Amino acid sequence: MMSAAPSSDPSLDNEWKEWKTKFAKAYSLDEERHKRLVWEENKKKIEAHNADYEQGKASFYMGLNQFSDLTPEEFRTNCCGSSMCRGEMAPDLPEYEDLGKNSYLTPGRAQV
After folding, report:
1. Residue-wise pLDDT tens digits, 2-60
2. CB atoms < 10 A from the CB of 20, how many?
3. Is the dihedral of CA 27, 30, 35, 37 positive or negative?
4. Separation CA 36–CA 16 (nearest Å)
5. How many CA atoms lie within 13 A of 110 on its CB side?
6. What span is annotated as the signal peptide, if there is one (predicted)?
7. Which residues of 23-61 are buried (b: 16+ CB within 10 A; e: fewer)?
8. How far apart are CA 99 and CA 97, in angstroms?
9. Residue 1 pLDDT greater than 50, yes or no
């Protein structure tokens, strides 16, 4: 009986191995297939975005990185411990103050 689960693209085998080596990734047998499929999906999204970038439809270029094997949910759970990443503002930040306006800053000096 054949599995209905998607399979990985064999043409990406070498790139997958190089990416794992570059970012020192190692998976259990159970985890390997899932991570490979997530990586391939992220790679497709990056390539689509970069095609838009080449056409001037996007203002930045994307690339594979050490997080390319994570789903957005996995990234938020594993990599976003700070309140800023969760979209919360830090309540204890001081108010903005222009230090030059009240002469708190002195002119630069020659350093010998």
Report:
1. 556 678 999 999 999 999 999 999 999 989 999 999 999 999 999 999 999 999 999 99
2. 17
3. positive
4. 8
5. 1
6. none
7. eebeeeeeebeebbbebbebbeebeeeeeeeeeeeeeee
8. 6
9. no
